[in-house]
Amino acid sequence: MIESATAINSLSSRAMQADFVPTSEQLVTLTYGQLQELITQAVEKAIQPLQEEINSLREQRDHDRAEFERFKAAHRAFAVQTTKDLDALFEANLKPTTAPQQPSKKTAAHIDELHRLMVEDRTQQVSIAKAARLLGICKERMRQLKPLIMSDGRFELGWGQVKGKKAVVIRIRQFLK
């Protein structure tokens, strides 16, 4: 009897298996509204992560813009302060901090002697090296005298040709007129 029951059960299960269609291959009938609703849900499910990422990127952009504006304002303030500092430094360097240097007796004697020698020789201009030879001093000492010669109203320093090369020359103003 058990055998016959097993045989009956196996027949019915074989018949069911023959008519069985897997769910992926079953025909489903949907209305247009149901299909549209399914598509809308699928699209929303796919778009949601992208919308969240876009919102996150917008927040980051707004944060970056605000930070950039703060940086620009700080840069402007720094540039203005630096310009003021440089202007103040420039003005401070233009104003003499000490009284004009008064030449010593020996230095004044050198300058007077140079003027006398140039006038006697009717020399319009001399180089630093020739002036040093005329006075019997070294060229370095003559270079040290340049600021004092410039401040003396009898002389003028300028550029001239000395042996075909450009060099600083000392000129007497009375010969320039």
CATH topology of the largest domain: Arc Repressor Mutant, subunit A
Count of the domains: 2
Structure summary, number of beta strands = 3
What's the architecture of the largest domain in CATH terms? Orthogonal Bundle
The geometry reads as rod-shaped
Question: Would you write up a description of this structure?
Answer:
The chain has 177 residues and is mainly alpha-helical. It has helices at 2-19, 32-94, 105-120, 128-135, 139-151, 173-176, and strands at residues 125-127, 155-162, 165-172. The chain folds into 2 domains: 30-97; 105-176, Arc Repressor Mutant, subunit A (Orthogonal Bundle). The chain has a 3-stranded antiparallel beta sheet.
Chart the SSEs and their pairings:
Blueprint: H1 2-19, H2 32-94, H3 105-120, E1 125-127, H4 128-135, H5 139-151, E2 155-162, E3 165-172, H6 173-176
Antiparallel strand pairs: 1-3, 2-3
Helix pairs in contact: 4-5
